[in-house]
Amino acid sequence: MKFEIYTRKGIRNAGIMLSLFILFVVMEGCMCISMPRKSYSGPLPPLEAEDSILKDRLEKDVKFLSDTIGQRNLFNIEGMDKSVGFIKKSFEDMGYEAVIQEYKADPGVMSELRGSPSKDENIYKNVIAEKKGTVKPDEIIVVGAHYDSVDSEKCPAANDNASGVAAVLALAEYFSNKSPGRTIRFVAFANEEPPYFWTSSMGSYVYAKSCREKNENIVGMLTTETIGYYSDDEGSQKYPFPFSYFYPSTGNFIAFVGNTSSRSLVKRCVSIFRENVKFPCEGAALPSVVPGAGWSDHWSFWKAGYPGLMITDTAPFRYPYYHTGKDTADKIDFERMTMVVKGICIVVEKLAEI
Q: For 181, which of 106, 135, 152, 214 could close a Cys bridge (C-beta 3.0–4.6 Å)?
C-alpha cells in the first residue's frame, strides 16, 4: 500500500514538474517572439523626392564593392585592401577621422584549413569612425557590417554583404551633421565569412574584445547583414523549425534578430521601427543555438558580454543566391532597401537619445 501511495505521489509530482517545464518553455518561447506594436501590412508608400539621393548612394556603393572590387577575402587581399581604402575615404569625405585597427589572424585557423602547419601572414583591418555623444559620450552604440566576401563561386557578394556596408556608410552620412546624446561608432569588419566565421580571427571579435579590455560601455550593437532582397511571393520565406508557425511565409519584411540576453534591445528597435516606418518588420530574441540567430558580427559582441542584434533580410532563409556567383547588384531591390535604411537611421537616432 505504501509503495502504491509513493508511486502515485511520484507520478503526480513528475506530472507537476513536467507541466511547469512545459509552461516555462511556452512562456520563454512567447517572450522570444513577442514584439511590441504590429508590423506594417499595407501598401508601401512611394519614396519621397529626397530619398532618391539615398537610393542612388546605396546603389553606387553596393556596385562599387561588388562589381568594381569584387572578391574580397583572405584569398583576395587586394580586394580587401581596396575595400578598406574605399570605406576609409568615404568616412573621411563625410568629415570623420577614420581609424584603422590592424591585426593578424590566428595561424591555427589556416593550419586547419590547409591540413598542414602554416601561418596566415596577412594583415587584416577594421575601419572605424565615431560621432561623439554630447550628453553621455561614454555610452556607445556600435553600428557595423562586414565588408569581406565568401570565397565561393567567385561570389561578388552584393547582398552579402555590400548591402550592409552601404547601409553603414549611409548611416554615417546621416549622422555626420547631427549631435547625438550617446556616442555612435560606425565599424566595417574584416573576416566574417569562413574560414574565420565564429573564430577569434573575425574582425568583429577582435574589435569587441578590444572594447571589453578597455571596459567600454557599449549599450547596443547593430549589424546590417544582407539587407537588400525582398519578395512578395507566397512561400518565399523559410525558417528553421518551428518558427514557420509564427512568422510570415512571404519574404517582404526586414528582421531584427538577437539572443535572449539582448531581448530588451531587440524589442526597443522593433518598437521604434514599427512606430515610425511603413515597412514590414519582424523581430526575435532567440537562444543562440537556433540556426541563423548568431550568423553575423553581433555574435562577437555577445561573446564579449555586450547586447547585440542583426538587421537582416534573413539571408539563406530567403535569398536564393546566397553565397553564389549570382549574388549580384541586380538582385537587390534598392527602393525597398532605401526604406529600410531610412528606418534604421530613425532606430539609431532614437537609441542615441538620452
A: 135
